[in-house]
Amino acid sequence: MGVISTDSPDSAAAATARPAMARVPLARTLVFGAVALLLFLLVVLPFGWVLNNSFHDDLTGAWTLGNYARIFQSADLLEPLFNSLLLAVATAVIAVGIGVPLAWLVSRTDLPFRRTIRVLTLTAFVTPSFIGATGWILLAAPNSGWLNALWRSLAGAEAGPLLNIYSMTGAIFICGIYTVPYSFTMVSSALDEMAVELEDAAATLGSGTLRTMLSITIPLVTPAVIASFILSFIQGLTLFGVPAFLLTPTGIPVVTTKLAEFYQLFPPEIFLAAAYCMPLLLVTAMLFWMRRRILGRKQFVTISGKSRAGRRIALGAARWPAFGAALLLPLVSVFLPYAALLLVSLTRAWGQGLSWENLSLHWYWWALFGNSETHTAIVNSLLFSTLAATLCVMLGTVVAYIVERRMVFGASLFGAVATVPIIIPGIVMSVGFFAAYTRAPLNLYGTPLLLVAAFAATFLPIAYAHGGSILKGIGPELERAARSLGAGEGRTFLSITIPLMGGGLLSGWFLVFIPIIRELSVAVFLITPKTNVMTTLIYNAKDGGNYEAVCAMSVLLLLITLALVVAAGPLTRLTTVRRTSRKSGRKTAPAEGVLPT
């Protein structure tokens, strides 16, 4: 009878593996616990404090429904709600009404300079709407606006203003043109990825261009159109900068500016502000519920075995008129406001007009070197945005990995919590963080950590959705192979999954960083003089009437943002090429960071 030696290789390997296996549950528990804690601190706790505060009285602190009763019984509080809904509906109609046809022209026709139109439209996308509003104040202020001055010189000095940007119409115009890129981007992406065989078949059977677009193309991109309408509606509903710049001077209130007013009272009505956030939250939640009801049971699929490439629709004699119409959006959202901002920033005194004697780089020198507040705000913007984007992408990617790989029972709950901020307007998130973290024991008011956390929480749904879309395209086979060779879950994730995600993670980082650096509504209640960022400094400086300084800071913010957009493409492509090279095995040595087999 043979006796199995306790020193056999298999037995030794098993003995070595046991401690590692014993550590796995503890490691998983620590990781999942850390992720759950971060989601609780970034999402659940701020929203919970908003909800809790809404049921308390500002004077006594007692539980009450009086805040809600006051909202729906006071005409002064109902008017901003109706104004916000009007602004949101009009913004969404403009965004979809212009963005969808423009996307079709760029993606499906032989429109001249299609690439240029796409780039200029995306330039409007990265332009903060309140900076666009500043440019249009210079152009269309009723008394001093350059376009109105030109109109008076043509029509007579006694003629009234042609345009008045300080009006609901002006706010709708600004919100609309800077929201069109959302609709354009979503619909053009859907059109670019859609097979064109049905359109070709319709054309072969004699269908005209317009009929083909209405009966074939638009129905296939209906999900993108509906999603863009909802997103545009939410943008119009929750924007703070444009109403603050254009409507507050004329006394037209909306919900976001009314919330700021509550915080400026003495003493501030913080609990009433919390209750006043609820209508915004209910409207956005209802819109996403309606989208799910409309699209939840429908499938919009094109079945085809061919590539999506196909002929472009010839516009014929309408080709150049269509190009002229497509240029209108870049004209009003990029060229005119950018030119106004640049010209004013290059003058010592705007009121003295344009002359060689008045041209100067004084305000740029002042912004970069002569003013400590501006220098601090620039550094803060870059630092806070970098930290927030990094935290956001790291957390979003880990949550996406847990959900996509079903790492734990109830993993979908992690994804649900990470998605919740998409229905929480930025200014509501700001109110939530103010309520949750400006009290003992944490008392983070005035600290960079508060702003970084608020930014990360607001844009977490973008990072989570982006990480999930990348992971859907990465099969789990290599991860399983690594696990079978003894690699732990952590090492597998860091050595296999992260390198395979490659350029996707970098593009996701830029996708989060750019909206963070131009975000105003999230920061407006959380900043102090020491933690000012560029957006809040511009907002505060505008009230002082120093438009030369405001324009110089706005141009600097635009240059920083556009430079990052330009840098994002090559960096992402370089990372993607390296990742593809590793996957295809063109390198003989193991790639750095990839587990060798």
From TrEMBL:
It holds the Pfam family BPD_transp_1. Residues 81-291, 378-568 form the ABC transmembrane type-1 domain. SUPFAM superfamilies: MetI-like. The chain crosses the membrane at residues 30-51, 85-107, 119-141, 161-184, 220-246, 270-290, 320-346, 378-401, 413-437, 449-471, 492-517, 547-572. PROSITE patterns: ABC_TM1. Keywords: Cell inner membrane, Cell membrane, Membrane, Transmembrane, Transmembrane helix, Transport. CDD domains: TM_PBP2. Gene3D superfamilies: MetI-like. It is a multi-pass membrane protein. Its main location: membrane. It is found in: Cell inner membrane; Cell membrane. PANTHER family: INNER MEMBRANE ABC TRANSPORTER PERMEASE PROTEIN YDCV. Belongs to the binding-protein-dependent transport system permease family. This is ABC transporter permease. The lineage of its organism: Bacteria, Pseudomonadati, Pseudomonadota, Alphaproteobacteria, Rhodospirillales.
